[in-house]
Amino acid sequence: MSFWFLFNYLLSSNFISGHLFSKREEKKTLTRSICILFFLIVVLSSCVNKEILDDVRIATAVGFELAENEELKVTAVVPNYMPDKTITNEVATETARINKEAREKLDRTKSRPYVSGKIEVLVYSKEISEKGLMPYIDSYFRDPTVGSKIFLTVTDSDIQGLLQYQYGTRDNGMYISDMIEHNINVGSLPTTNFHDFLNSYYAEGKDPFLPLIRQIDNEIKIIGNALFKDDKLVGEIPEDKLFTFKSLMDRKTSQDSITIEMDKEKYAFLHKIKSNRTFKFDNVEKTKEFTININIEGLIHEYSGGKIDKKMAEEITKKTKEQITSQAEEMIKTFQELETDPLGLGEHVRSHTKNWDSKKWYETYPNLNVTVNTKVKLTETGIIE
Questions:
Q1: In whole angstroms, what is the distance from residue 247 CA to residue 211 CA?
Q2: Residue 258 lies inside a defined structural domain of this protein
Q3: Which of 237, 267, 293 represents a domain boundary (last residue)?
Q4: pTM, full prediction
Q5: Which residue, of 126, 218, 240, 325, has the fewest CB within 10 Å?
């Protein structure tokens, strides 16, 4: 008996009952019919989902690197949920000339095909990133089952080794995804995902960046950001400058932290930092002047030099301003030398300029005089008078 036959049967039964019984009985019959129909929908839906899950392998992470013969080496991770509620990671690797060929090879080696609908992260080697990522991203961009909020990363580690290692009892794809999301929310990583990468790639006056990760012992760590010119890797932001980069990238941030280097190998640790960034410019192509204002508020959590009095708090505030300003200006000069614009200065100028000329902008950008003004306010430091 088909679903639609039962559906029509219930409706017709209710119609007949409306003629043979009282309104009260009719209402009871209708309620009963609705309950049965709802039950059938739930049962049939659960059966369909179970059948699909049993027939496919759901990849949560896919890695791309070059094999020794310069062919593409693709590694896919599929979580296996065990009866004791632990998770093991099944890893398969194939080499091919292009991504689709590798995927077909992976399907042929297993009894069930791989699906992309639950991918959490795509990992690319530095070698592939230097050649250009779009040939390895395009198929996922065109796949409607792949979400726009998945993460893309670059690594200098062996990708097969990175993905096949068992990091506790967790799904490796979710492990990397959670780590990146955590560092965006309460760390020094600017907002980034698949959508952001594509938006920066296709936008006029902006270039993408991606988190740079590395396998260190039994864990994966974020060691910086990878900078791109179009889709090609051209440079890196080291880990100790991530906070400054995030302050330049994101219009507003919160819950960040930073270590400030003081004199004579002494350090101050600031936390619960909030920052606000604004751009200011006028007729850039003529004046070649661009100003970035950064306002920072935070708490002094620890100072390695001992107790913090009012004078020391003022010194820490001064050093914080100097460190962020100098790092930011040095960073922007590096961007100009690499001819990459991850901050999207060109995009901001374009959105405020009539008849914006991209050719003129790209001629102007390397010689643009960018001034960074930093204001720092440190409060609730627990100062000992």
A1: 16
A2: yes
A3: 237
A4: 0.82
A5: 218
- 113-122: b (≥16 Cβ within 10 Å) or e: ebbbebbbbb
> Tokens 């350090």 appear where?
267
Residue that is written with structure tokens 């995009």 in the block: 347
Nearest partner of 323 among 237, 244, 269, judged by Cα: 244
| 68 and 133 in a common domain | yes
**Domain span holding position 222:** 55-237
The pLDDT value given to residue 42 = 54
How high is the pLDDT of residue 113?
76
Residue 46 lies in a domain: no
Asked if the structure places residue 18 within a domain, the reply is yes
Cβ atoms of 197 and 151 closer than 8 Å: no
Beta carbons of 231 and 200 less than 8 angstroms apart: no
The amino acid at residue 318 is: K
Residues 316, 356: one domain? yes
206/269 same-domain check: no
What confidence tens digit (pLDDT) does each residue in 156-211 have?
A: 999 999 999 999 888 999 999 999 999 999 889 999 999 999 999 999 999 999 99
Cα(192)–Cα(166) distance, integer angstroms: 26
Query: At 305, phi and psi to the nearest 5?
Result: -85, 0
From the list 231, 210, 112, 89, the residue with the least C-alpha distance to 160 is 89
Q: HSE (CB half, 13 Å, CA atoms) of 133?
A: 31
In a domain, 37, yes or no: no
If asked whether residues 10 and 117 sit together in one domain, one would say no
* Bigger pLDDT: 292 vs 169: 292
Distance CA 340, CA 334 (A): 9
In tens, the pLDDT along 80-112 reads 888 887 888 889 999 998 888 888 887 776 667
- In this structure, how many other beta carbons lie within 10 angstroms of the beta carbon of residue 167? 16
How many domains in the chain? 3
User: Beta strand pairing status for 61-66 and 72-81?
Assistant: antiparallel
Under the banding of pLDDT at 50, 70 and 90, the label for residue 9 is: very low
pLDDT(372) > 90: yes
CATH number of the structural domain spanning residue 324:
3.30.300.210
Q: Are residues 59 and 207 both part of a single domain?
A: yes
